[in-house]
Amino acid sequence: MPAITQNETRLKLHFVANTDHSLHAGLVAVEAMARRFGLWAKLRKIAPLDPRRDRRRGYGPEVIVGQLIYALGSGGGCLSDSEALNDDPLARELFGVKKFADQSQVGEWLREQSEASVTALRALLHEFVAWVWAQAEPRRLLHAGQREVFFDDSQLEVFGRQFEGAAINYQGDLALSWQTLWVGPLLVDSHLGRPGDVSDQLLPMLERHRALWQGRPAHFYADSGSSAGHYLNALAAEGWHYTVSYNKWTGPLERTAQALPAWAWQAGDDAHHAFVRHQPEGRSAPQLFAVKRWRDGLFDRYGFIACDDAQTDAGRVGERHQLKGEKEQLFGEVLSGLDLHRPPCSALMANQVYYLIAALAYNLMVAIKLLDLSDECQSWRVKTLMKKLVFLPGRLSRAARQWVAKVRVPGAWLSWWQRWAQRVWPTFGPGRPRLVAATG
Prior knowledge:
Layout: E1 21-22, H1 27-37, H2 39-44, H3 61-73, H4 79-83, H5 89-95, H6 103-111, H7 115-135, E2 147-157, E3 167-168, E4 174-183, E5 186-193, H8 202-209, E6 218-222, H9 229-237, E7 241-246, H10 251-258, E8 266-267, E9 272-278, E10 287-296, E11 299-307, H11 314-321, H12 324-337, H13 348-372, H14 382-390, E12 394-399, E13 402-407, H15 414-423, E14 435-439
Parallel strand pairs: 2-6, 6-7, 13-14
Antiparallel strand pairs: 1-12, 2-4, 3-4, 4-5, 7-11, 8-9, 9-10, 10-11, 12-13
Helix pairs in contact: 1-13, 3-13, 6-13, 7-13
């Protein structure tokens, strides 16, 4: 082929005001999922989320939450990004408002929330997760026929003393603790608080969401922060399979493992595996542990996993527990994909509410993948979903007293979007729709 070199550009530039174009036209997919669940109507009915004395003035809670979900779903992780939606005419018309709230109004609304608001948002999050589980194909949610439940804590570093609840954590950093509970790929609960016991919200979260796994095959994963005796009592009482890392009080376990006869060990590829029993402090009965033994130079090393009594193969316990790493990646995906590394407010209650809304935004994006996309797309991360589905150019125009959003999609995706619009978009409400989504 002939040589290709850079030539001097002859492009002429003209800058004009944007009054009808959008770079986030794919928000129609987020809006459609919210409408299918009836999200905006449900938010409107939650009284604690509406602190207005005169409800004839100001923004309703569904508008504030909606614009935060729109902003988070299009890569914006701060309050100013929600205000920037005012520059997107399609987003305003799609949601049905002439003007979104500015960031000071959003911040004020967050600061006016209460513990009742947190409780209501948690119940709504639970309801949405249950709804998705009822709609999605089981093979996209289950592993080995089981529901997977995962609990973890992450430390959110903050800077400055203005963050209520922030304290020095075990790493010596000023931080807030974010504890979460997951059922399958969906985030079902969130708690932001002062660093301390990294699992102090585990038992309340299990109590709130037990209906999502009770009576069904399930497997629970957690790290060593949840391995204290009273936590193991609660996990055993759930009647599910569970694996919990155990690396804090291993002295008695190591002595027990060293005393095992040779026949008790099962050889693996690079290690040996066995079971031992030990009753940690606070545990009401002897606990079963899967032990892994491997050679490190001149010495044997041991690793321990607390597990349920139904386990019969110590090696497989270790293999199953390695899947906890995939769940931890989901946690990282939420933090990075929605840019949640920095809490946006100084008030702890405001941040609590904001992170619950972020969990709802994340679940909406994941629900689009689970319910609408093909098998080949199920490995997509949230950032990929944004790039493929949300970051699309679009133009808003008016024809026959009706707004039309023309979304420019890649040619390879044109037939998918057209089928999606026929299946989902026209089903909302009787009569002429306020907004028609056209693709191509």
